[in-house]
Design brief:
CATH superfamily of the largest domain: Hypothetical protein, domain 2
Number of helices: 11
Bound molecules: iron/sulfur cluster
Structural class: mainly alpha
CATH class of the largest domain: Mainly Alpha
Largest sheet: none
Distance between the termini: 31 Å
Length: 219
Amino acid sequence: MDPAKKIREIAERLRRHFGPIRWRPRGDLLSLLVGTILSQNTSDINRDRAFAALKERFPTWEEVLNAPLEEVERTIRGAGLYRQRAKRIREILHRIKEERGELSLDFLRDLPPEEAHKWLLSLPGVGRKTAAIVMLFGLGAPYFPVDTHIKRVTRRLGLWDGRGDPHDALAPLVPRGREYELHLHLIRLGREICRPRGPRCRECPLKDLCPFPRGDGPA
Ligand code: SF4
């Protein structure tokens, strides 16, 4: 099947299986960006704990910017890689403050999406996935972040050959306006059914579309 047709069919089936999801605004864009940086290579629970600790210790981004770096590191320790993350968050806050005069990303709402995306990618340590998350979740713009679950699932489904950046391979295939829902549905599929080990292919709503050798891993 043509890959664009196939992904459209996948989007439909996952909507039927998991139910529709509508985009809703996530509030503060800078919080979304910092939360995304804290979520890299760690669990949602650790990210949420680290973010909550950061906000409790430093209620404003100004305070995060002006605090001793070691204190910021200590506060987000639970997220792992805390030195690297603290340094990155501080560099980003510095850059925003220097360039915009205030610690806010609200100006992105007034830019054309391509420009907002390009600006995000110019921030230290912000890659395709992080920029796409801010664009999609924060601005409702048609970007498709690819995380570890989506990489695995789309590879098994034969939508990506594992070479190059999966954003390049997958974004053009996603039906316009379905980015948000499909992103969340593929992650859910990856967590609950198409698990890294022991995928539950027998109960998968995509099994007849999937060339991956069948698995029926332990429940
Ligand atoms: S059939 Fe199996 S390998 Fe293919 S998408 Fe479903 S769970 Fe994953």
